[in-house]
Amino acid sequence: MSGRSSGLALLVLCGCIVAACARTAVVGGNRTLSVGLTEYRLKPDNARVSAGLVTIEVHNYGRLTHNLAVSSDGQTTAATKPLWPGQSATLSLALSPGHYQLASTLLSDQALGAYGTLTVTR
Question: N- to C-terminal Cα distance for the chain?
Fold first, then answer.
């Protein structure tokens, strides 16, 4: 393979990896979204659900304390208490169509990558 072909192959491979990381989780008929928190990550980081009642089950898989806050236009809609490593919490929310931010808001979690988006459709 020439240098140019190798560079192109590497670029395509990197694009596939990035695309795989940007997958959106779709909440099914049980209306439950499971969210995992770790240091610098929130999984899934993008989710989609139809409007109405949704249950968000949150588990801290990390080594530090985290929480999960759901907000829209800078206003917090709901948040868990701080979760120690291994702890879980559940949020039940009635959500209208729109875009919501999901984030761990403790210390510098959000700045370090512990955030995502929840899109609520009609």
Answer: 50
**Span 12-30, pLDDT tens digits:** 444 444 444 558 999 999 9
Handedness of CA 77, 29, 47, 33 (dihedral sign): positive
The first and second tokens of residue 57, run together, are 């089950």
Provide the pLDDT for residue 90.
Answer: 98
Helix (H, G, I), strand (E, B) or coil at 93: strand
CA angle 78, 116, 73 (to 5 degrees): 55
pTM listed for this prediction: 0.80
Count the domains in the chain.
Answer: 1
Domain of residue 33 covers 24-121
